Fold this sequence. Notes:
This protein is of the alpha/beta class.
Amino acid sequence: MKDVAAAAGVSLKTVSRVVNGEANVNETLRTAVLESIAELGFRPNAGARGLRQGRSGTVGLLLEDVADPFYSILSRAVEEVAREHGTMVFAGSSAEDPARERELALAFCERRVDGLIVVPAGASHSYLLPEMRAGIPVVFVDRPPGDIEADMVLTDNTGGTRRGVDHLLAHGHRRIGFIGDAPEIYTAGERLRGYREALESAGIDFSDELVTQAPPNPESTAAALDRLLAGPSPATALLCGNSRTTVSVLRELARREASLALVGFDDLELGDLLQPGLTVVAQDPAAMGAAAARLLFQRITGGPPGDAAGDASGPTQTITIGTRLIARGSGEIPPP
């Protein structure tokens, strides 16, 4: 800044005012400063500014996998809200590993991020309590934290699955299978609960033989379909618990040339191009990411007047984002 001031023939304070976007600067002087900045290639020192302002202008985003389409949409929504606040986003993948989640989260905190958005990988998050007491707000998204109180943004997993099962019931199905993710995952458990509740509401007994819960892979999917399609009363319809399970099931069904009514939880980018088109219970990852980011920045900045979320010590909030059923054909196949 001293070099810029010397080149422009102005005071250091004038350069500071121009760099910080203050309005009370003579336009002739502002032009001279901006020309000197361009000529010298000056860039403000973000670290020094952060020390002065008490904020780093960064937030941390911890996802299960940044390459997953669901989380990439969520991440982009977080970035858009952060951009409105002049803030950059650091993102990392936990790979469903609690130790890796902790390592990344604390690494972000060491770099003095202004807040964290976390998709939980494990059941314990008490390691974040010292950071939260030090003033770093944390918002959990997609799943709740295991053992601390914090803001959350969740999908209506139970209601969405009920909607999918009700859709299959309305098209005449009574033997409806469910293939979900590993049972220890919160969303998998909530979606199984919705499946069970929908059947019970229709007066249909819940049957363990129609349910499989395991990480999606070709072997587990093949075994699940073997079980569902065997015997005198095979399943005539299937609800898949997430997009990866749906893709695995579609591949296996194509290999077998088998036909089942199918509803997937989560949409697929090319789901409308399949024959028949894929019927899905669609989440809204963009709405989830935006809601989580807005909650976080309300905590960071103080929020709008009268908004309790703007108080870092205020009560925690839980926002639930709804789902919608998109009928494209696969869920409307009648039972034989």
